Amino acid sequence: xxxxxxxxxxxxxxxxxxxxxxxxxxxxxxxxxxxxxxxxxxxxxxxxxxxxxxxxxxxxxxxxxxxxxxxxxxxxxxxxxxxxxxxxxxxxxxxxxxxxxxxxxxxxxxxxxxxxxxxxxxxxxxxxxxxxxxxxxxxxxxxxxxxxxxxxxxxxxxxxxxxxxxxxxxxxxxxxxxxxxxxxxxxxxxxxxxxxxxxxxxxxxxxxxxxxxxxxxxxxxxxxxxxxxxxxxxxxxxxxxxxxxxxxxxxxxxxxxxxxxxxxxxxxxxxxxxxxxxxxxxxxxxxxxxxxxxxxxxxxxxxxxxxxxxxxxxxxxxxxxxxxxxxxxxxxxxxxxxxxxxxxxxxxxxxxxxxxxxxxxxxxxxxxxx
Length: 370
Ligand SMILES: [Fe+2]
Description:
With 370 residues, the chain is of the alpha+beta class. It has helices spanning 36-44, 68-87, 95-122, 138-156, 161-173, 183-186, 194-201, 203-212, 219-227, 248-263, 274-283, 291-300, and strands spanning 2-5, 14-15, 19-21, 26-28, 49-53, 132-134, 309-312, 317-322, 332-337, 343-350, 361-365. The chain has three domains: 2-53, Molybdopterin biosynthesis moea protein, domain 2; 68-300, Hypothetical protein af1432, CATH 1.10.3210.10; 309-365, no CATH class.
């Protein structure tokens, strides 16, 4: 299986992984042979890359970081939870609403414990790109992804379980305030006006106020909503906090947040690949983000996930076949073209092997025709 750009796919390619909607229903099943009309339909859903099965990529497995069933359950719990809290009005006599949001928070805490256990058991480099999804409302999917990335980052920080659980809940709730902002503005392609940008920025305080109303939510969790757009150099919002003035949870969540934002497809732009997302984070090393978090994050992400096409510094082309846990940036690969770009009988090498130390990946992309 490999990852390719949809606009390079001719009719007849075989879908390697199912495509889901945000509720977890299968829109297009694995094994489907794509027709031109299906390809057009997927483009309308703003899907840019898909996994396909073909001869060159035979035997390459793309492992999901979180089992499908758990991911779908977590997505539904988060969606319901965010909606329950957003429905709370500021009238504190809304007893029913308080009960409902309290229950929703407990469900979120429970499902987060399942995510945490799953990450602890699987010990694989995170690859959330392994699932292709079509969504109506980006906030819900983003909240799940950020909670998974933040969870792994909290584990890498060596934090105790109760703190990891608080970070997980904070990550699930961090963008809650965005549900209060008109969707046309959140999804607006192109440049925002000053007024629109000012409105979007209010989501931190709106989220903070909503989260504070729910007694079941520990106080430090609300800092995730309030401070996840603060930046180490003080250039963030809403308060322009600097360095360690920013709550630890927010310093972790901001890294997870930006990585998911740039590696997710939005209606107005194509997603970056993981190695490009990591570059964005390093671009903000110790200015936007705490350097330690960026470094730790790099170590837990599948920078070159299996199925990606890569070019080596000697001109050869390959498909990534496996992660290399000892060296995340140096995966195992299947060479498919030689230095002169000629098709060859494929063979595999491990970039983590010391004898290949002079080889480097210089380009990576989701390509069908290379
Ligand atoms: Fe945000």
